[in-house]
Amino acid sequence: MKTSVRIRTRDDEMEVPTPIGLPTLVQMAFEGVDLAPLWNMLVQRVTETDGDAAALLDLSTIAHLQGRPQDRIALQAEALRFSRIYRQPPENAGVAPLRVLALMAPGDFMANIPLEFMLDAANVNLDMLYILPGEPLPEIPEHDVALVAVAESDENQKILAEIAGIPRNWPRPVVNAPERIARLTRAGTWELLKDAQGVVIPMNLRVPRDTLLRIQVGATEVGQILDGAEFPIIVRPADSHAGKGLTKLDDPSEMMEYLSEWPDEDFYIAPFVDYRNDDGLFRKYRIAFIGGQPFACHMAISDHWMIHYLNANMHNDAGKRAEEANFMATFDESFAVRHCVALENIAARAGLEYLPIDCGETRDGKLLVFESGTNMIVHSMDSPELFPYKKPQMDIVFAAFEAMLRHAASRRPVAQSSAA
Predict the structure, then answer these.
(1) What is the structure's pLDDT at 291?
(2) Eight-class DSSP state of 311
(3) For labelling, which of 41, 55, 251, 326 has a CA lying 20 to 30 Å from the CA of 81?
(4) How far apart are the C-alpha atoms of 287 and 332, rounded to whole Å?
(5) Does pTM surpass 0.90?
């Protein structure tokens, strides 16, 4: 994208829409608050005020929370027609809040880094600029540091390429290189880490639907394309997240039923790795690398190999919560030391200032990497009564994230020019 970067540097502050925002709306939904009255109020605002972009964006978020994806898309597109920039001001502004400009992609919660959660309580003025393919950049607010918040996905590859094409001499420091984010496909993550010392990562291969059909009828052996691996394998639609369509197939006969349920044209396949502990339970860890350093974000324990925090029954099992609390409390002296070589290699190879991963441990004690992605949810919304250890740990994570941005902002003097 050949475009200029025009920054508002005059004393008069640029007017930017300020929505209610993701943290407040998600917390309300999380707590079971009826969003209908708020929806009606926002609809009235839109009706009475043409171009109320903030209200439209909030309506889009509510539609997503209510499971209405088409409404979410339409409302977000209408909001972006009126404004491409939205602001989350600091809740309790201290002296000279850090001014962060986030480069964002349109989409749902998985399209970008969950910045609004991570910076909700920080002394940060967050301006979110949505990048639209083929569209020039609007005039943007003055900022101390820019952050590429766009996450890797099929849909976002074009946006990441456009951001990478913005003139390299952006007049402010930029965090998270878009070309390094773009390579974090499932196959790309495997290529990046497959020979990293201390790391075990199953081969992830993207294949067309026809390949799975050939495996099903015996025309292609799994080992021919998965480096000698045999069944069971795991399969998922190519651009799915949060376990959507993720299934373990124990033999080729199960392929047809799976494909009848998922009509996608491309899939990822990988060997299944049995990573259960001696007690028969599986453990999945979410680790965030911030400025190259690993931080514990959560741990989920389940009797099923496919673990998500919400389906791991952590809420109803005090023993699991106690183990997670200990994992967080001892992370720096235990897990991070045990896997120091692997963690150092991942951080170095990724080359990103911010990157979360999901991982486990093999039976012989190595770090088993499942996936990486800047869009992984990192939050502190869990009940403080049930999870008293969570917020203190997430406060550490969020403080490290803010400190990383402040350090990045100081890397070089702020340019005086408003164009690049």
Answers:
(1) 97
(2) G
(3) 41
(4) 12
(5) yes
